[in-house]
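Table 4 source record.
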Amino acid sequence: MKVEFSGPEEGVGAKQSWEGKSSGRGSMKSLSADPQEGIRYAFSFDGNPSTGGIGFFPGPDSTLVAWYADGDLGMNPLPATLACNGRFMGPDFRAGLINLRRG
């Protein structure tokens, strides 16, 4: 997989682009970053733009972390079915949140 970085090294405007046989072509760009509320980003997989983020929700004894994505999956029912069942990005989200919990 070929990966390129552009923009600032970190924070708003930082961008990562990739292309590979198994990963396809995509990019992710940071839109906002707040240590109290979380981050928002724009991303694209094979030309399909979406937005997403990681939100922080403080509780009395811990902080809930929510990782989410939002986008138009078009008229093809297969992507919508996979997304609704959590099969499209769900495994990556779960793995990332588990790694976060491990610290």
